[in-house]
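User: Could you go from structure to sequence for me? I need the amino acid at each position, not a summary. C-alpha cells:
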C-alpha cells in the first residue's frame, strides 16, 4: 500500500516561473512555492526577480498604482522606490534611506524559452544544474505552448505525467488508444543524474487523432513514448511516430519517423495549486500553420482533461480521512520513483531519506 502524494515542496531548486515572452518592461507577478515574486525586464533586456512585497508595509509591488519608471519601481502605497538590484533608493519624508531597505532578489535565468527562478538559499544556486529542453528554442523545431492553472498539489501532476496509461481512459479520442494502457513499461532511475526514465514502445498501435491529423499517417503505427523526468520541475516526453516496422537507422538518423517533444514544467504555486506549463515541439510540417493550430488546440484540451481530473482528486486526497491508502501496481513504478526523489528534496537537512530504491 502507498501513502497519497504529499504536499511538501522542494527548496533549493530551480523552477520555471514563466515563459520569456510573458516578461516585458512592465511589472509581472507570479507565485512560486508560496513566494510571491515580482518580475520585470530592464531597459537593457534583463529579467529581474525580487520579492513582490514592499519592505515598508508589504504592499504588493505588482499592484497598481505601483509604477515602473525607467528601471525603478515606485511603490503605489507611500512611494518607496527600488532599483533593479532590489535596493531601496528613495523613501518619502527623509533623505536617509535605511540600510536594510532592500527587496530579496531571486537568482533568475532565461533558458529554452523559460524563465527559471531559484527558490531557496541563493548561495546554492548553480545554473549548470538547470535541466534542458533545447527543442523549445531551436529553429529546427516548431513549438506550440501554453500554461493552465491547476488547483491540485504538484505531486498529483507528476504522478499523472509519469503514468501515461491514463491516456487510454482520460484522453480517448485525442491521444489515447487501447495499446497505451495494454503495453508494459520499463523504468530506470538515475539518482546521480537526477532523472526518472519511463519507456513504452508500442510496435503496432492504432494512430490517435492527435498524430494522424498532424503527421498524415493513418491506420496502424509504431509509437514510442520515452519519458525523462528531472525532478522537481522539468518533464520531457520523447514521442516517436513511424510507419509499422520502421526503426531508427544504426547511425541514429530516423528519416521515416515523426518526432514530437512534449515538455511540461511542473511548478508549485502553493502547496495545493500548480502552474501547468505545457509545450509541444515537432520536427515535421514545421511551417504548416494549420498543424500548429490543431496541435495547440488538441494539447490544451488534453491538459484541461487532466486539470479537471486532478482538481477533483485534490479535493479527495485533501479531505479523505488520515491514513487513507492507495494501491500501486507495475504502471506506478515511475511515479513512485519520482515520489522518492521528491521526498529526498523536501526532507529536512540531515534527515535520512530512502533514495535510489529501484
Ligand atoms: S507599503 Fe510601499 S511605500 Fe509603504
Ligand atoms: Fe494526461
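Assistant: Here is the amino acid at each position, in order:
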Amino acid at each position: 500500500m502507498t501513502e497519497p502524494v504529499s504536499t511538501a515542496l522542494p527548496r533549493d531548486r530551480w523552477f520555471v516561473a514563466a515563459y520569456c515572452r510573458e516578461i516585458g518592461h512592465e511589472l509581472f507577478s507570479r507565485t512560486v512555492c508560496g513566494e510571491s515574486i515580482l518580475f520585470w525586464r530592464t531597459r537593457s533586456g534583463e529579467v529581474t526577480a525580487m520579492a513582490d512585497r514592499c519592505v515598508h508595509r508589504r504592499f504588493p509591488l505588482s499592484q497598481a498604482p505601483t509604477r515602473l519608471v525607467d528601471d525603478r519601481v515606485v511603490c503605489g502605497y507611500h512611494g518607496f522606490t527600488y532599483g533593479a538590484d532590489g535596493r531601496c533608493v528613495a523613501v518619502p519624508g527623509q533623505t536617509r534611506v535605511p540600510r536594510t531597505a532592500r527587496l530579496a532578489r531571486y537568482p533568475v535565468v532565461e533558458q529554452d524559452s523559460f524563465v527559471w527562478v531559484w527558490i531557496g538559499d541563493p548561495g546554492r544556486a548553480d545554473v549548470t544544474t538547470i535541466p534542458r529542453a533545447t527543442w523549445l528554442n531551436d529553429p529546427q523545431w516548431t513549438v506550440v505552448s501554453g500554461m493552465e492553472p491547476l488547483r491540485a498539489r504538484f505531486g498529483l501532476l507528476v504522478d499523472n505525467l509519469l503514468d501515461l496509461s491514463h491516456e487510454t481512459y482520460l484522453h480517448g479520442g485525442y491521444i489515447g488508444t487501447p495499446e497505451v494502457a495494454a503495453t508494459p513499461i520499463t523504468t530506470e532511475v538515475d539518482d546521480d543524474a537526477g532523472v526518472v526514465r519511463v519507456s513504452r514502445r508500442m510496435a503496432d498501435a492504432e494512430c490517435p487523432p492527435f498524430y494522424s491529423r498532424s503527421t498524415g499517417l493513418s491506420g496502424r503505427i509504431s509509437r514510442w513514448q520515452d519519458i525523462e523526468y528531472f525532478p522537481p520541475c522539468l518533464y520531457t516526453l520523447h514521442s516517436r511516430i513511424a510507419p509499422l516496422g520502421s526503426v531508427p537507422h544504426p547511425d541514429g538518423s530516423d528519416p521515416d519517423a515523426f518526432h514530437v517533444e512534449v515538455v511540461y514544467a511542473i511548478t508549485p504555486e502553493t502547496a495545493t495549486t500548480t502552474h501547468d506549463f505545457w509545450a509541444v515541439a515537432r520536427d515535421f510540417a514545421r511551417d504548416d500553420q494549420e498543424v500548429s493550430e490543431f496541435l495547440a488546440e488538441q494539447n490544451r484540451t488534453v491538459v484541461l482533461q487532466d486539470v479537471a481530473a486532478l482538481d477533483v482528486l485534490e479535493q479527495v486526497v485533501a479531505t479523505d480521512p488520515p491514513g487513507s491508502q492507495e494501491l500501486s501496481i507495475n504502471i506506478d513504478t515511475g511515479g513512485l520513483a519520482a515520489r522518492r526523489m521528491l521526498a529526498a528534496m523536501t526532507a529536512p537537512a540531515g534527515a535520512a531519506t530512502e533514495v535510489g530504491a529501484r
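One structural detail worth keeping in mind: Helices lie at 154-162, 167-170, 178-182, 209-215, 289-319, 333-346.
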